Structure formats: structure tokens, C-alpha cells
Amino acid sequence: MTAKEAKLGYDSGNTTAMDKVKRFASRNGALIGLIILCIALSIATPAFLTGPNMLNVGVQAATVAILAFGQTFVIVEAGIDLSVGSVAAVSSMLVAYTGASMGMPPLVTILIGVLTGAVFGALSGLANAYLKLPGFIATLAMMSVARGLTLVISDGRPISTSGMVNFFGSTVAGIPMPIVMMIIMGVIASVILNFTSIGRSMYAVGGNMEASRLSGISVHKTQIMVYVLSGVFAAVAGLVIAGRLHSAQPQAASGYEMDAIASVVIGGASLSGGKGKISGTFIGAILLAVIRNGLNILNVSSFWQQVVIGLVIAFAVSFDTLRRKVDTH
Prior knowledge:
The chain is mostly helical.
């Protein structure tokens, strides 16, 4: 029995039921919180637990969830990406501009949008890996560049999007496409993180960068790839936003980076790196959407909604800090 196990009062052969409950609660706090919140809102208002409203919650969560899936890669690697909202905006704006003003085929414009996200992510990754800029600073700069280019391209005005882009925001057979895209991108993110060598490298580098380097892992490659993936997922989120609005908006996804980071942390990832999972991020994004949806149904002021979301984020980060302190003792 290890010292840590002795302190917690159990060993590998003598785990009590209470120990199992505590560990389950620690690992699945977001899921438990989501279930409790849904029960409370169902009691508070019958309008909450209805089919149309559940679909509405899914649509509201979709964009943030897709951004958060990409953000998960970065946070697992012990980084942070503040540029995802702006990258989503500039990617969707280029899709709209190349289609409306340059007459390019819709599929080509979409590929340009995704490539734009990858390029912005690569620039952030290169700054982090080779210029040794902290992820916070590198992506803060990229956030400003991306938002500025969005305004330059659009001249501060919305640009209409084509039918193929609008498909990302449509409803097919009663199922909103944003929800479908959220599920598809979630599956892709989960496969990357759990079943590929780059995913394993993310966990290794986030857990201990120096040990990873000594074991032969290309730390620089991993640092660049997490930001490239984050940029690609941000571009897809931008397509979903443009599809829902039938236009690319210069201020699209403004502030979404905070919700994306909050979703990842609420879902159980550690800001110190080496820990996180896509399923947890998904639950975190749904939890934030449920909070906003429930407060809207209860006619709570949007100003107070910001207060509540801020408190949820503060609690999630505090819980992560406390959990790391416990794990180190």
C-alpha cells in the first residue's frame, strides 16, 4: 500500500464502497452536476424538459463544444488557446468572401476556411515551440490579428454565405445539423486523443515535458500540432456559426474562447496539463448551455447570467486547483 493510499484510507485490495463513491464523484462531478441541474430546472419549469427545448440546448452547445474539443488538445498539452473565437470568425469570413466576392466554388471556399484555421493554429504553435512564447501570449496576439483581419476583409459588415455553408446550420429530418457536426467533431477528437500517437504525446508532454523529450517524443511537433488541431476545430465552429446565421459576421464568436476553456475545465481537464477527455469536455459544454437555457426560460436578466457563468468558471478552476493539491500530497 502506498503512502497516498494509506492517507486516503484504502489499498488496492481493501477499497470501501465510500471510497468508490468519492472517486466516482471526483471523476464525474460535471455529469452529476448536469443531472442535478436538469432535475432542478424540470421541477422549476415544465418548458425545460421538452423535445424542442432539448434540441435548442444542443444547438446552443454545438459551437462552444466544437471549439472546446480543439481546446482540449491544447489544455491536455498544458497550453491555452485564446484565439479560437477570432479564428472561427476569420475562417468563416474568408469562406464567405471567397464565395461571394471571388466566385469560388463552395467546396473550395470551405477548404480555404479550414486551411485558414490550420494556418493560424500553426503560427501560434510555432511561436510557442520555437520562440518560447507562452501559449497565453502567443494566442492572445493571434486573437487580435485574426479579429483585425476579419474586420479588414469584411469592412465591418456581414457577408452572406452560400447554400453549402448554410447547410451546416440547417435542419435535416428534424435534426439540427449543428448537433450532427458537434457529434462528428467529438468522435474525431476522441479518436485523435485516445487512439493516435499524437494524442498520447499530448498527454505525455502535458504531464512532464522534460521526461517526454528524454523519452524521444518530439515536443516541438506536439506543441505545434495541438494548436493546428485547435485552429481546424475553430474553423469548423465558424462554419456552423455562419450556417446558422446565413452570413459571416465580423464579431462572430466574440468571447467564445472563455466558454470553450470553461467547458474543458468543467469537464475535468487540468490546466496544468496531462489530464482531460473529450467526453468530459462535451458534458462541460452541455452544462453551460443548460445553465444559459434554464436562466432564459426563468427570465433571468442576461446581466445576471454573466455573473452566474463567471461563478461557475471560478468554481471549476478552484476545484481543479484543489484537486491538484490533493493529488500531490
